[in-house]
Prior knowledge:
Layout: E1 2-9, E2 15-17, H1 20-23, E3 30-34, E4 40-44, H2 45-56, H3 63-73, E5 77-79, E6 86-88, H4 91-96, E7 102-109, E8 112-116, H5 117-137
Antiparallel strand pairs: 1-7, 2-6, 3-4, 3-5, 4-8, 7-8
Amino acid sequence: MFIGEYSTTIGDKNRILIPKRLRDEIQGRVIITRGYERCLIVFDSKRFENFVQEINKRPLLSLNVRDTKRFILGGAQEVEIDSQGRFVLSEQLKNFAQIENRVVFLGVGEWIEIWNEDSWIKKLDSLASEVSDIADRI
Length: 138
């Protein structure tokens, strides 16, 4: 299971180091795609296949299903992790998540999110002020 929050910087040629604790949980290929709230979502191959199977259980006639497939699957890219645990983030995904220099990796169970650090700080502040209400809605 992916857990924890880790800050890092994006390096030359858009290289990012996946924190070791998260990297140790990854099995197989790595897929990165657009996420909600302008973050990126990182899956390993097994978790990505499980996620796609869940989406595929829904009726194709639903516009929400088609839009989800367009957004998530259409934006997905397989990346190669080098021997030091780094990967190259595409310009397309970097621009989508508004990533400039500092990023936050967030382990959220079945996937990892990558946030622009400033965006994550704002989101975390919002979550902190609403956490009781959110818990009640669950």
